[in-house]
Amino acid sequence: MIFKIIVLFSLLNIVYSISNHPILIVVSYDAFRYNFFDTKLVPNMERLKKAGTYADYLINVFPTKTFPNHHSIATGLYAEVHGVVGNSYFDQKKHIKQKMGFDMFHYNEDIIPIWRWNEDQGDDRYSGSMMWPGAIYPYQGKNVTYRQEFDPEMDWNKRVDTIISWLTDPNKPANLVMFYIEEPDTHAHAFGPNSEKIRELLQKLDNITAYLEEQLEKHNLADKTNVIQLSDHGLVAVKPPNFINTTQYMTNGTYNKAGSTPCFQIYPKEGYEQTIYDSLKAGSIKNGHFKVYQKKNYPKNWYYKKNPRSPPILIMADVGYGLDDLIINAPWYAKHYKFNLTDDSEFGVHGYDYNVSDMHPFFMARGPKIKKQHKVAPFHTVDLYNLFTEILELPQVPNNGSMGNIVDILSDKPGRYSIGSILIVTVGGVLIALLLISVAAAVALIIIKRQQTITTAAALNKRFPQTFHNNIIEAQHLLEPEDA
After folding, report:
1. Stretch 108-128: mean pLDDT
2. Taking the model in full, what pTM does it have?
3. What range does the record give for the signal peptide (predicted)?
4. How far apart are alpha carbons 14 and 393 in whole angstroms?
5. Is the pLDDT assigned to residue 419 strictly greater than 50?
6. Domain-by-domain residue ranges, the chain?
């Protein structure tokens, strides 16, 4: 009978197959600013935030752009180390502007993103990427087991359903999934962070958060799965009167340019660096709303200049101001999204110094390895890699983050067992308990009968001492506790 019960629950464990390793889902909502919670439009996220561990905000990396920050989340490295110095950069060896592609994410082949490191440890560990920037490409010559290319037309619920299928795959159940959603960033660039469109998207993001939680519950994954939700950067509103024409300060044909508002990467052609810098510097003084830096003078806390991809000159608009590309893009946005362009139109911008509060992302986490109803101090994006490896029980990898910044997030008693394993252990425990109870009952009956026999002997000894003299001491010893 016991054997049949164990076999039954083993079969159930196969049907609802999940990894034997800790499970982690990292969810990124692009440009979800830390204080979007103040809108009161995300009640599900607010509830889950307070149920687990959260920080008021994250301290991200410079530049506060999508690709650099997502790769810092995935590697624990600053942009000058992992080499993704912007959403685009100018390749000075190939003399071409590089955008999203294999080369962008492979500055150094020794850099190991978390999804690759997870699978490299073997023992049936599998990773998945739902559109995470850079994860579609092979690293160290190997692709991630599950991957979905970026497809903005893919329904959000279908994205979650696909992730659940990876986690419950009967042959290769994933224990790490990186999940990216491109909103509110995509529409915020056209409508600005204060628009009704963004309010609608915040509600939609709140709904998909609830849907993910419902599906985890439905598939008996909620108690086993750790979920970290975060973003890469925030947003600032910029209006057309604050667009700056910096091209007027440079001579066409003397430089190459990459990047986008609010920071332009300028790569002067040979012999023109000082001329271009001097002209831009004079323009910045005249205009008063942008700064220009030579590479040698980049602020140290940017961790940006020690990479050959970093530009010799960087133009940075003041907060609330934009550069030449917005002069071109604003009319395109108006035409594409069918709205009237006026001086009061707002456009979403990010890329400023990470110390600007409106550039701050959010952070919240929940699961068996995460403390409940707990708040931590703001920490750095580069610290997240250490948090991932701790949750996944992987060896540490040298990086720019600090272990000390994330230990307070972790529960003292992390969960490590699958639902099926818990059921088997529970059933086994119940059966053992029943067996022990049966043995204890049998022993108790023997003791009771023994006591009854001795009690009878003691009583008879009082009446007939000459017959039961040898049992006096033992009988008295056994009767004392009962008398007391």
Report:
1. 97
2. 0.83
3. 1-17
4. 23
5. no
6. 21-234+356-417, 240-349, 423-483
For residue 24, give the H/E element and its range: strand 23-29
Question: Could you read off the pLDDT of 322-338 as tens digits, one per residue?
Answer: 999 999 999 999 999 99
Joined tokens for residue 48: 């889950």
Q: Among 186-195, 406-415, 447-456, name the one with the lowest average pLDDT.
A: 447-456
Cα–Cα distances (Å) from 372 to 54, 190, 385, 386, 406, in that order, read 10, 38, 21, 20, 15
Lowest-pLDDT range, 292-296, 304-308, 465-469? 465-469
Asked if CATH classification 1.10.357.10 holds for the domain at 21-234+356-417, the reply, yes or no, is no
Residue 412 pLDDT level (bands cut at 50, 70, 90): confident
Question: Are the beta carbons of 189 and 161 closer than 8 angstroms?
Answer: no
Q: How far apart are CA 422 and CA 399, in angstroms?
A: 35
Q: Give the separation between CA 390 and CA 368, rounded to whole angstroms.
A: 13
Q: Is residue 361 within 8 Å of residue 234, measured between CB atoms?
A: yes
The token duo for 160 is 């979650």
Nearest-5° angle of CA 138, CA 144, CA 149? 80
- What's the burial of 247, exposed, middle or buried (CB within 10 Å: 0-12/13-18/19+)? middle
What is the Cβ-side half-sphere exposure of residue 386, based on CA atoms within 13 angstroms? 19
Q: What is the C-alpha end-to-end distance of the chain, expressed in Å? A: 45
Class of domain 240-349: alpha beta
